[in-house]
Amino acid sequence: VIVEEVIVEEVIVEEVIVEEVIVNDVHGNECGPGTLLENNICILDQRCGPGTILEGDACVLDSTPVKSSSAGNFRELIMSVSTALGIAGIIGVILALIARANKNKN
What we know:
Number of domains: 2
Low-confidence stretches: none
Strand order of the largest sheet: 1-2
Mean pLDDT: 76
Shape: flat
Radius of gyration: 37 Å
Largest sheet: 2 strands, antiparallel
Strand content: 15-25%
Order of helices and strands: EEEEH
């Protein structure tokens, strides 16, 4: 008696998922700082580091005005010094009371 075994092979089909890249089409051919226009699409400029922008073919410092808050820094300094002096005064009073109590004992 001859027994034949049938082998069945399964074919696995993989689906390819295509992701769409969302890009903003810019009208008027203008891009903001730090971006370049390629094929009528603004893309990030990878050639310049933080604080610089591309002008022509060179990276230059970003000339965006930075508002300084020197009044806020001065207020923080006054608060810090006042707090430190207050804590030092409290410690001084505590040490004076301890010294006075120790003097009265003797």
